[in-house]
Specification:
- Pfam families: DUF7670 (PF24709).
- This is DUF7670 domain-containing protein.
- Keywords: Membrane, Transmembrane, Transmembrane helix.
- It is a single chain.
- By secondary structure, the protein is mostly helical.
- The chain has 2 domains: 35 residues, no CATH class; 114 residues, no CATH class.
- 75% of the residues lie in helices and 0% in strands.
- It has 8 helices and no strands.
- Helix 2 packs antiparallel against helix 3, helix 4 runs antiparallel to helix 5 and helix 4 packs antiparallel against helix 7.
């Protein structure tokens, strides 16, 4: 259990954990204090939680997809048809994950559209549309990014003052 005084708790209770790590004056475990403050903070927004879950899941998906692509003993020389499919999945999906770190809605849409185009391409070539749940699980952070961005924009619209209210 972390031991720090009530003054530190009051001072840092409304400060983001990154600022605690940078400006912390006490000589205790900074990361532990930041985690404790986040646990005590009642103002964590759902879109923030969704965003960080999507980021962690996206990093995990990306690492696993790259391991699948380049980690095997077999050669990696796709045909033209396979290269086009790889452009959509995992290429577009990973690109969407990367863009979503800065622009959540845009990156999430790139991920979801890439997944849809991949499924359409496979359906056009083989007639099989449902490829199983695994492709959806790998691309799921894209959906979380979209929900997070929509929640954030909805929250922003609720707080924005209208022109009539300003008068």
């Amino acid at each position: 259990m972390l031991k720090y005084d009530a003054h530190a708790r009051r001072v840092y209770s409304h400060v983001r954990w990154q600022e605690v790590l940078v400006r912390h004056e006490y000589h205790e475990d900074e990361l532990g204090i930041a985690i404790e403050i986040l646990r005590q903070d009642r103002n964590i927004k759902p879109e923030t939680i969704l965003s960080w879950v999507a980021r962690a899941w996206g990093v995990g998906s990306t690492l696993l997809l790259v391991a699948f692509m380049f980690g095997g003993q077999e050669h990696f020389r796709p045909t033209a048809s396979e290269a086009l499919a790889l452009l959509f999945f995992p290429g577009g999906v990973i690109l969407g994950f990367a863009l979503a770190w800065w622009r959540e809605l845009f990156g999430g849409l790139i991920t979801v559209v890439s997944l849809a185009l991949f499924h359409l391409y496979i359906f056009a070539g083989s007639g099989q549309f449902w490829l199983g749940p695994y492709f959806l699980l790998f691309a799921a952070p894209g959906f979380l990014y979209i929900v997070s961005a929509l929640l954030a924009s909805h929250r922003g619209r609720q707080r924005a003052p209208t022109a009539d209210a300003a008068r």
